[in-house]
């Protein structure tokens, strides 16, 4: 009976160790996904803010080529990653609104046919979309991290 008890205790110990390893690995993976989500949200917000800053520099400081030098591909890459990483409808809707507001602002600016009233409206819409995206990002990241 002693050998069977030892064998049973060994099997139970091994099972507990395996379950523990699995739980730790799962928690680490969830934490990693939370960090990736946060990084992509930050990349989208930073790129969008940089775009706004460049338009402001051209309009108010008279600098040339600032918007043309903006890295659109970085925004597209972060957007695609975010769409893959997140299933949060609110976050994805706010991302879509931010990108639409950015396209409208950029399109109008590049055409050069923007008057002060239109510019102010497009600027304010982009600003509101950015704030909405930041709020949705914060909620999504905090929710994901609380699961990790």
Structural summary, described in words:
- The protein is built from four helices and no strands.
- The chain has helices spanning 2-61, 72-85, 89-111, 116-147.
- Helix 1 packs antiparallel against helix 2 (72-85) and helix 1 packs antiparallel against helix 4 (116-147).
Short description:
Helix content is 87%, strand content 0%. The protein has 148 residues and is mainly alpha-helical.
Strand count: 0
Give the overall pLDDT as a whole number.
88
Name the helix and strand elements from N-terminus to C-terminus, one letter apiece.
HHHH
Structural class: mainly alpha
Quickly count the helices: 4
Question: Biggest β-sheet: count, sense, barrel?
Answer: none
Termini separation: 43 Å
- Ranges where pLDDT stays below 50 over 5 or more residues in a row are none
Radius of gyration from CA coordinates: 24 Å
What amount of the residues lies in strands? under 5%
Helix amount, in percent?
over 70%
| Shape category | rod-shaped
